[in-house]
Amino acid sequence: MTEVRTRFAPSPTGFMHLGGVRTALYNYLYARKMGGKFILRIEDTDQERLVPGATQVIYDTLRDCGMDWDEGPDKGGEYGPYIQSDRKDLYLPYAEELIRSGHAYYCFCTKEELAERKAAAEARGEVFKYDKHCLHLSKEEVERKLKAGVPYVIRQNTPTEGETSYKDMVFGEISMPNDTLDDMVLIKQDGMPTYNFANVIDDHLMGITHIMRGMEYLSSTPKYNLLYEAFGWEIPKYVHLPTVMRDKEHKLSKRDGDAYYSDFISKGYLKEALINYLALVGWNPGDDREMFTMDELVQAFDISGLSKSPGIFDVEKLTWFNAQYIRQLPFEKYLSLATPWFEKAFEGMDRQMDFRRLAELMQGRTEVFNRIPEMVAFLKDMPAYELDLYFNKKMKTAPETAADALCMVKPVLEALGPWTEAEIHDRVMDAIQEKGLKNGAVLWPLRIAISGLANTPGGAFEIAYLLGREETLARLDRAIARLQDAYGKGNVQ
Ligand code: GLU
Q1: Which of 44, 364, 387, 429 has its CA 20 to 30 A from that of 158?
Q2: Contact, 133 vs 109, CB < 8 A?
Q3: Would strands 237-241 and 210-214 be described as parallel, antiparallel, or unpaired?
Q4: What pLDDT shows up at residue 267?
Q5: Which of 5, 7, 43 has most ligand 1 atoms within 8 Å of its beta carbon, as the pocket-test mutant?
Q6: How many domains does the chain have?
Q7: 8 A C-beta contact, residue 118 and residue 128
Q8: Residue 174 and residue 164: Cα distance in Å, rounded?
């Protein structure tokens, strides 16, 4: 059996789109699963669309995700170079071969002439495709123009009758009537090949067996196959992948900040969670497993599990995965990842904060790291809150009586020796017992008084500890004063 060779062939035009990461992933998984090779090829023949630094982003993203390539620009390999602009002299002879065999021809039409004919076609209500004008030039005419240095492109000479079909491994039989195929440009005026030509030449020369790429190439592939046939080359297997969408109607978009790998990493999604989830957007393992490491994905991946309906990238679902992965992080790792977000949250605060203890309380509650600042903001500044918060049916508490509970706790806290969580806990619990009260009757109002929130990481003791003595007592004082203002002084027990 021939060795499976897949490739990821991005154009360095900006950040890595999630759809691109998923394409790379499937290529990587399939190559590894089959014991084959995964090749990285940089497709930079469209010089106008290049973005400086984008190639580096591609390397970094793939490495970051653990998709190491076997052959590629910085790795070398038998079939290099792996950057198309470094291969630019290699394509013209192939195009000339096609001219000799009648599968391609020189075209001297100028931009203006083409625009004119296009406008005329559109005026007639037709879709313009190149009208083979230059195919009909005499040999002498072509020679004369070439000698005179008239700029030219080389076009594919597609048949005008019959149809071209192939079998895609995801979409099944794809058939295109040949009269709909455009005589696409193979070599541009600047001598560079187009993507349409270079992908065929390179996939063949690099021995690619399976072409997995976005479905936007589904309908151009018949033209590529005509080229393979013209050269007498074996046609590779095609695996076109449905687009990754935000929902049924919308693509992921730059504007919504949900299109790029880096968008998610900078928001505080873990790459392992992102990869795990992305793998499932358009592929399913055939059972109900959801959590996969990269190695497990390699084991489970199969082309037959790919779907032809658009992959919906559901951020809520990703967030669920992320929370699972965060929960499973070793504590020290969580702490180091959370620390910059804590620092951001407490910037400019003049109290110390025990990040380690905070991290213990936060790990199980963190869904995405960028939500941390909001969740811990109450530890920096006391939030505004409604007195209604003191109501709690289960704890049998109410705003009218909350001041009593707080006035009971206050001297206990004031008298505390070392401000440790254990001390706070033990002394407050002793006092509650002594007074024969229910825990909740005191701890609920206490937590509201010092956090202003019904839902907090940790309870009253943990929060009091994190706030420190001074801040806790100050918040307590303010809460008591506010309650007494509203309801008058209670009966301090
Ligand atoms: N350079 C093309 C792109 O970035 C790759 C398409 C392919 O994989 O053949 O869309």
Answers
A1: 44
A2: yes
A3: parallel
A4: 96
A5: 43
A6: 4
A7: yes
A8: 8
* pLDDT score, position 493: 44
Residue 39 and residue 66: Cα distance in Å, rounded?
A: 14
Question: What local confidence, expressed as pLDDT, does residue 288 receive?
Answer: 94
Report, as residue numbers or ranges, the catalytic residues. Answer: 254
Name the average pLDDT for the chain: 96
Mean local confidence (pLDDT), 338-359: 97
Query: Which pair of tokens denotes residue 78?
Result: 């038998």
Q: Which of 241, 269, 292 is the last residue of a domain?
A: 241
Residue 433 has pLDDT above 50, yes or no: yes
Q: Residue 282 has what pLDDT?
A: 95
Kindly give the number of the ligand 1 atom that is closest to the alpha carbon of 213.
8
Asked if residue 323 is part of any domain, the answer here is no
pLDDT at 161 exceeding the cut of 60: yes
Q: Is the pLDDT assigned to residue 491 strictly greater than 70?
A: no
* 382 in a structural domain: no
How far, in Å, is the centroid of ligand 1 from the Cα of 43?
Answer: 7
Q: What is the pLDDT of residue 490?
A: 57
Ligand 1: centre distance to CA 41 (Å): 9
Radius of gyration of the CA atoms of the chain, in A: 33
Residues 6+ apart with CB under 8 A from 443: 395, 428, 432, 459, 460
pLDDT at 54 over 80: yes
Judge whether residue 471 has pLDDT over 50: yes
Protein residues whose CB sits closer than 6 Å to any atom of ligand 1: 9-11, 43, 195, 199, 213, 217
Instruction: Report the pLDDT value the prediction gives residue 256, as an integer from 0 to 100.
Output: 79
- Residue numbers of the domain that contains 366: 330-373
Stretch 157-167: mean pLDDT: 97
What amino acid is encoded at 333 in this protein? K
Q: Where are the beta strands (DSSP E) in 260-357?
A: 311-312
The residues that bridge with 245 in the sheet, in sequence order, are 251, 312
The answer to pTM > 0.85 is yes
Instruction: Tell me how far the alpha carbon of residue 459 is from its chain's centroid.
Output: 36
The single-letter DSSP state of residue 122 is H
The reply to whether 143 and 167 lie within a common domain is yes
- Phi, psi at residue 129, to the nearest 5°? -130, 155
Q: By percentage, how much of the chain surpasses pLDDT 90?
A: 94
pLDDT digits (tens, 9 = 90+) for 296-306: 999 999 999 99
Query: CB atoms < 10 A from the CB of 143, how many?
Result: 12
Q: How far is C-alpha 90 from the chain's CA centre?
A: 35
In terms of DSSP H, where are the helices of 73-132? 91-100, 111-123
Domain boundary among 218, 241, 264: 241
